[in-house]
Amino acid sequence: MQTELKHFLDLSKIFRKLEDENYCIVKLPKSFPLYEIGSDLDIFCYDIKSFSKIILSNLQELDVSKTKIKINTAETHVYIDIIRNKKIHFRFDLYGALPSYKNINIKNAFFGSVIEHSKRIKIDGLNIAVPSNIDEAILRYIEYQEWYSQRPDKIKHIDYIKNKMQSNDIDLKKMFDRLHYYTSIPDSITQTRPTKLSGKAKRKKARKLYLIIIFLIFCIALIDIVIF
Q1: Are 148 and 165 contained in the same domain?
Q2: In 3-state terms, what secondary structure has residue 77?
Q3: Domain carrying residue 106
Q4: Average pLDDT for runs of 10 along the chain of length 228
Q5: Within 13 Å of residue 87, how many CA atoms lie on the same side as its CB?
Q6: Please, are residues 142 and 106 in contact by the beta-carbon 8 Å criterion?
Q7: In 46-140, which ranges are E strands?
Q8: Same domain, residue pair 117 and 175
Q9: Where a domain ends, among 131, 150, 180?
């Protein structure tokens, strides 16, 4: 049974075949190209069908008697599960557009901007595409804001941002400017209370409040950087 749990995927080989593709890996694990069993990779790419075909072509050599490949396809989302012993051994999570969020609206253009502003880093001889430091921080903050009430472990994303700030890898002002440009509050939040303001004025006021809240959350989360 122990042999069944061993790492058998060669992510280096797969991503070597993907070096010419337009993509970026969001929240790249520090251990990459090694991986934890049961984990996944979130990947933004323009053509999820073409991208998934390249991945699948590299999975054909797996032992089919022990391994099952499950593919779930939607218009802008594909995930490929490698299953061993009826459990997910690893997942490729491919996005052709931004996922939907309840607590924040993000302009569709941010998706392409993340890919276009991505950078290539060298890992074990591989050229791996990841978001810019600012885009990575924004994506992590959005996930934290969306899920923290249900998943307190998402505080790890704030810790990531703090660490990047401590090492001067993130310009907080530029991050807020970019966050301001690409995000807004959902109408369901801005319309929760009656007001005599016009729709445009109401949205403008709510947006200012939203940005103040974001700023205060960051100040509270990052205050120990100033103190220590």
Answers
A1: yes
A2: strand
A3: 1-131
A4: 66 94 95 95 96 94 86 94 94 94 87 96 95 92 73 71 80 84 69 56 58 54 48
A5: 7
A6: yes
A7: 67-73, 77-84, 87-95, 105-106, 119-123, 126-130
A8: no
A9: 131
Q: ω before 33 within 30° of 0 (cis)?
A: yes
Which structure tokens are listed for 122?
A: 């060298």
> Which tokens go with 35?
């991986």
The letter for the amino acid at 49 is K
Predicted pLDDT at 160: 76
pLDDT reported for residue 228: 45
Q: Which amino acid is at 14?
A: I
Q: Do 42 and 87 belong together in one domain? A: yes
pTM recorded for the entire structure: 0.79
Give φ, ψ of 83 to 5 degrees.
-110, 130
Report the pLDDT value the prediction gives residue 2, as an integer from 0 to 100: 43
Tokens representing 118 are 């991505």
Predicted pLDDT at 3? 41
- Both 25 and 107 in one domain: the answer is yes
C-alpha to C-alpha distance for 18 and 54, rounded to whole angstroms = 7
